[in-house]
Amino acid sequence: MLKETQKEETKVVEKKEIKAIEAIDDEMLLACAHCGLCLPSCPTYRELSMEMDSPRGRIYIMRALVDGRLPVDEKFAEHIYRCLVCRACETACPSGIHYSRLIEEAREVFEKNFKRPLSQRILQNFVFKRLFPNQKLLGFTFWMIWLYQRLGIRWLARNLGIMRLMGRMGEAEKILPNIPSPLLKYSLKKVIPPEGERKHRLGFFPGCMMIHIFPSVNLATARVLAENGCEVITPQKQQCCGALHTLSGIKEPALRLARQNIDIFEKIDVEAIIVNCAGCGAALREYSHLLADDPDYAEKAENFSRRVKDISEFLAEIEVKPPQGEIVHRVTYDDPCHLLHGQKVKEQPRMLLQSIPGLELVELKQADRCCGSAGVYNVLQPEMSMRLLEDKMKNIAETNAEIVVTGNPGCLIQIGLGVKQHNLNMRVMHTVELLDLSYRSRDATS
Q1: 169 or 322: whose pLDDT is higher?
Q2: Of the residues 113, 144, 167, the one at which a domain ends
Q3: 411 lies in the same domain as 292
Q4: Taking a C-beta distance cutoff of 8 angstroms, is the pair 190, 233 a contact?
Q5: Domain boundary, last residue among 113, 134, 167
Q6: How many domains does the chain have?
């Protein structure tokens, strides 16, 4: 709850002309036919049965804001920020509305007009303008987190109840898995040659969270690509993709990050830019939209976005060397929202898994539904996030799988948390890790 002084500040803002209101695409708002086909696909509508927490309802709210019938206040933010931006409604929408863009635009309007409490402004400024745009600072932060976990400080902080007093930082700490050695990320070389004849020359976008939390997935990605005749180039000085910035309505840093990444990849001649993080992939493919009005970068961004491919999507397009090492396990696959709904990649990961000898792929009920991770949603909206995770874990438990596979770091963390909470005897892995394991187990036995 905001203090009285902060409420007074809000009233002052409401009387002024709303800043950046033109950011909301009026034509796209009008394109909504209000048919309601999106309602069953929306996680928050299924949980709350409230019109204002559905895609259609939120479009009504944005329409009212644009028409001057609604102020930019806490009530507006409550519904706009409760959306997970899972994009399931986009798959269901017969009008082809890019709902995620509308939500991002509405959040941008909110952030430019509403004065948050000082503590939130300080945290926002640090995370979005200092931490993620600075890879050295981000790396140092994960070194500190690793030491915090490794030296037992985490155990002490939890048992003394310190993390319960830390608010959102405490929520983030609770979700964070054990961090591997920060030295492991250096195993990914700038250039990895192909095994045998070079068939493809690829750029690789390793992603912030993959670099620091799941470096083994990046190494597996590089090995699998090299196994299939690909030269893999990971340009130095890559930046955060900017996904968290746009999702949070913090657009300006996202624009700078996008331009920097485009400039970096322009310097290398590659046929595709490979991503193994669904959230990063969806964000990188949106650069063409993000920079559409930039005369210096519009064409560059279009060319960049066109070349971005998820690892499973690329492997499904080329002649993949059949994996021969047996993985005799019962496996289920969960669709990451930004891979399925954001990039329209569904069958490719399943095809790759089915190509592994000995692997039994069991279809997961409601695999297309969000697990509740959604970027930093599980930190900012923990109650709703855990409700969605609970539904997901019930379906996962029913499969009796030994391994749960997905293709996004947030999903790996969230489902891993669910496995731990439910005491399930399961491993959570990335698609490419199983493929890599099959290739390497063949080599070990040959």
Answers
A1: 322
A2: 113
A3: no
A4: yes
A5: 113
A6: 4
- pLDDT value of position 442: 64
Of all helices (H) and strands (E), which one includes residue 287?
helix 287-290
Can you point out the beta strands (E) in 189-271?
A: 191-192, 200-205, 230-233
CA-to-CA distance for 30 and 27, rounded, in angstroms? 5
The answer to whether residues 234 and 272 belong to one domain is yes
Report helix, strand and coil shares of the chain as percent, to nearest 5.
60, 10, 35
Residues 398 and 434 in one domain: yes
One domain for residues 351 and 408: yes
Based on the domain organization, do 18 and 82 belong to the same domain? yes
- Angle, helices 409-421 vs 278-285, to 10°: value is 150
Q: Which of 306, 297, 220, 246 is nearest to 270 (CA)?
A: 306
One domain, residues 171 and 260: no
Closest CA to 408 of 283, 270, 228: 283
* Token duo for residue 214: 């799941």
Q: Tokens in use for 311?
A: 């690892």
**Are residues 434 and 405 part of one domain?**
yes
Task: Sort 257 into a burial class: Cβ within 10 Å, 0-12 / 13-18 / 19+.
Answer: buried
Enclosing domain of residue 156: 118-175
Residue 268, SS3? coil
Per-residue pLDDT of 302-312, as tens digits, reads 999 999 999 99
49 exposure class (CB count in 10 Å sphere: 0-12, 13-18, 19+): exposed
Nearest of 365, 367, 364, 379 to residue 414 by alpha carbon: 379
Question: pLDDT of 235-263, one tens digit each?
Answer: 988 999 999 999 999 999 999 999 999 99
Backbone angles phi, psi at 440, to 5 degrees: -75, -30
Name the residue type at position 390. Answer: E
Residue 367 in tokens: 């695999």
Q: Could you give phi then psi for residue 233, rounded to 5 degrees?
A: -115, 120
Burial, 393: exposed, middle or buried (Cβ in 10 Å; 0-12, 13-18, 19+)? buried
What CATH number corresponds to the domain at position 46? Answer: 1.10.1060.10
% of the chain with per-residue pLDDT over 70 = 93
Rounded to an integer, what distance in angstroms lies between the CA atom of residue 29 and that of residue 59? 6
Residue 331: CATH number of its domain = 3.40.50.11810
Among candidate residues 311, 309, 284, 279, the one with its CA nearest the CA of residue 378: 279
170 and 218 housed in the same domain: no
